[in-house]
Design goal:
It is a single chain. By secondary structure, the chain is an alpha/beta fold. The chain has one domain: Uracil-DNA Glycosylase, subunit E (3-Layer(aba) Sandwich), CATH 3.40.470.10. It is built from seven helices and seven strands, in the order E-E-H-H-H-E-E-E-H-E-H-H-E-H. A four-stranded parallel β-sheet has the order 3-2-6-7. A three-stranded antiparallel β-sheet has the order 1-4-5, covered by helices on one side. The longest helix is centred in the middle third of the chain and has 10 residues.
Length: 161
């Protein structure tokens, strides 16, 4: 397992009206390539979110951004920098957190959700002691989480409403 040091360079998606924050762990190689969140074509995040919000699945980055803004949803990741093997969250070492406190100060975010177990674990360890805002962990929409059907994911993500 060869670890590579990754520095997160995708800016958070939020504005002053954002009320809900969805946090991944770290962008996958495909997401970093696309320079936007949940960029792997087989990741079910965008279809799940669209279903929860009653919208068509957005295709372009602009459509994804617009859908999130319409529904006051912010997106970012827990990790600013870490050592990782490929896209394997379980391999994350030496994680440094993103400045979630800044998003909280610059928005109306009241609730934070992790889009997978590792994001939730790292948030609780590295960020929650500073922000004192608890996180709710949702199941990963990654294709690696095949145990969760699309329908089960949509049902689980309804809690963001």
């Amino acid at each position: 397992m060869k670890l590579e040091t990754i520095v997160h360079d995708i800016p958070p998606l939020y504005d002053a009206e954002s009320r809900v924050l969805l946090l991944g762990s770290l962008p996958s190689p495909k997401s970093r390539e696309a320079h936007f969140f949940y960029g792997h074509p087989r990741n079910r995040f965008w279809p799940v979110l669209a279903a929860v919000l009653g919208e068509e699945t957005p295709e372009t980055i602009e459509e994804k951004q617009a859908m999130c803004r319409r529904h006051h949803i912010a997106l970012w990741d827990t990790v600013a920098k870490c050592d990782i093997a490929g896209a394997s969250d379980t391999s994350i070492r030496n994680a440094e957190p993103n400045d979630i406190g800044r998003l909280l100060r610059e928005s109306k975010i009241e609730r934070i959700f992790a889009t997978g177990g590792k994001s939730g674990e790292l948030y609780r360890k590295l960020i929650e002691p500073k922000t004192h805002v608890p996180i709710t962990v949702l199941p990963s929409t990654s294709p690696a989480n095949a145990a969760w059907t699309f329908e089960r994911l949509v049902e689980a993500y309804r809690v963001i409403l």
